Amino acid sequence: MDGEYRYDPDTFEVTDKMLEDYNRLGYIIVRGLLDSEEMALLKRTLEGSDAIMKNAYQLDDGLNKAVGLCIWSHPGHDVTGMIIRSEKLVRTSEKLIGRGEVYHYHTKITIKEPKTGGSFRWHQDYGYWYQNGNLFPDLNTVYIAYDKNDPENGCMQILEGSHKAGRQDHHRVGGQNGIDEERVQHLAKMCPLKYVELEPGDALIFCANLIHKSDANNSDRRRWSFLVSYNAKSNNPVYEHHHPQYTPLDVVPNSAIKSCTNFTDMTGKGFLDPSIDKTVIADKTNPVHLQETSK
């Protein structure tokens, strides 16, 4: 796949070619950004702490299904916090965004359970982050596959190069914000549709104006994803809102992920109460229930 790279802990850095691909395509893929040991620590943290599920909620997709979400504002000091603050995520994002220092805008887990997990409509992240007072699209997201991602279980779909079309108008679809489907159809004639198939630990790093979606999970396998979003310090939002304004990041070496033994203390993460998020309509009355057969 175009714009695809493999992470090597000894040699990885953002090259001129990588930056050219990111600016041309709106994304790059980094295979193996988290290795199997790091993924095992992440899973022990997310599936071993009840804080995640206690703070998860459902988002209606307008198609009679829903996606589970858990969002938090600050990295914290658990394993997820070490990943968020690691040099390989932070420094890579700084170089790709190209506006100097970045800070943690928020992290989320998206939860698509077998057969029942819903879809995300065609959208841009900046389509609603714009509403939060971010004057420029100087943000990105490091989307890390938690489970295998493929078309059957609702992998990410992107319109390659669509970020160059600029910010699109969004309107409410179910509990989400989406781009007008006719507009998307016209853009798809110019911007090739790509299904992003990932193995656990692979990362799709994409800019805030890239148009993307994901379909419902119709498989018998779950599809969780771990998404870390960064904003440039220079793009500090002009409005106080449900995501943080500029907060300096205490960046840690990559080795801090494997040396972290905190799997349960989520102090200071600032889990999002969706009732204060004006860009979506969440269903807190219908809690996220995980299926015991999820793999």
UniProtKB/TrEMBL annotation:
Key words, A-Z: Dioxygenase, Oxidoreductase
Cofactor: Fe cation
One MF term in the entry's GO annotations: dioxygenase activity
InterPro entries in alphabetical order: Phytyl_CoA_dOase-like
Keyword check for Membrane: no
Origin: domain of life: Eukaryota
Name this polypeptide is given: Phytanoyl-CoA dioxygenase domain-containing protein 1 homolog
Taxonomic lineage of the native organism: Eukaryota, Metazoa, Spiralia, Lophotrochozoa, Brachiopoda
Gene designation per UniProt: LOC106151478
